[in-house]
Amino acid sequence: MKDRAVGFVGGGRITAIFLEALGGKGLTLDRVTVSDTSPEVLAKRKEQFPAITTTSDNAAAASGERVFLALHPPALKAALPELAGALRPDAVVVSLAPVLTFEKLSALLGGFERLARMIPNAPSLVGTGYNPVAFGDGLPAAERREVEALLDALGAHPVVPEETLEAYAILVAMGPTYFWFQWQALRDLAGSFGLGAAEADAALRGMLEGAIRIFFDPGRSYEEVADLVPVKPLADAEPQIRQAYGEKLGGLYRKLRGA
Q1: How far apart are alpha carbons 119 and 131 in whole angstroms?
Q2: What percent of the chain has pLDDT above 90?
Q3: What is the pLDDT of residues 4-60, one digit of tens each?
Q4: How far apart are CA 214 and CA 41, in angstroms?
């Protein structure tokens, strides 16, 4: 990182997560350029990470040796043609967006093929993310290893087939949002029951850590796990919740794969 000029095209949440994780590992940010069309976003990033350079010119961020594309698919698709002329021949471009395949990225970048794609995960903020990555055929092994070394700061980064990335987007990129609001609801209830915030958080965290260990125990089936607790207050709501998962997430996956 300290020897490479790194650019982030897009200064939103994902870029902030990356920069905090990288900085938390002691990696220097003084050769990082972040571009965004929003002056407010750029001001916020500069306040958070004073060492970075901020600009409204996407081409400036794309001129780095390692370039991260941190835009949503529609905005990224529109921005890619303008970036093509700014890319160095020896650059490595990492797309953080679903939908746009290597084939589409290369076409919109004028045939550039030194590409990787990654599905980012919010827990990367504290170095415990799960960030599946795929490498294009045009990216040499040495550069692949360098990208993986950089991603070490974020947490796990298994190399996966490109065609699975949209599934991972549903499972891990958006996954925390399926649970966080429920945990907060339990926090709020615990407070109403008379538990202090520290007591409630200790109980909730301990319960979740144990429940995760049991759930993923390879020696137990789901039915065995579910039978460990006889009282299930939300059992009547379970069919509707499962239906919502199937309809909302299944529909979103089909949309991503068909885009």
Answers
A1: 5
A2: 94
A3: 899 999 999 999 999 999 988 888 888 999 999 999 999 999 999 999 999 999 999
A4: 42
Nearest partner of 45 among 3, 1, 14, 4, judged by Cα: 14
What are φ and ψ of residue 75, in 5° steps?
Answer: -70, -35
User: What is the β-pairing status of strands 6-9 and 32-35?
Assistant: parallel
Q: What's the average model confidence in pLDDT over 189-213? A: 97
Beta strands, E only, the chain: 6-9, 32-35, 53-55, 66-69, 92-95, 115-118, 129-130, 133-135, 155-156
Token pair, residue 125, equals 């903020």
Specify the pairing of strand 133-135 against strand 115-118. Answer: antiparallel
Q: Which residue is associated with the tokens 């949209």?
A: 166
Helix runs in 97-249, H state only: 102-108, 141-151, 165-168, 177-192, 197-215, 222-226, 238-244
Token reading at 91: 């650059």
Q: 66-80 b/e with 16+ CB inside 10 Å = b?
A: bbbbbbeeebbbebb
Q: How far apart are CA 88 and CA 105, in angstroms?
A: 16
Query: Which DSSP helix (H) or strand (E) runs through 59?
Result: helix 58-62
Amino acid identity of residue 101, one-letter, is: T
* Among candidate residues 152, 119, 124, 128, the one with its CA nearest the CA of residue 209: 128
What does residue 157 show for φ and ψ, rounded to 5 degrees? -145, 70
Whether the pLDDT of residue 1 is over 70: the answer is no
pTM: 0.92
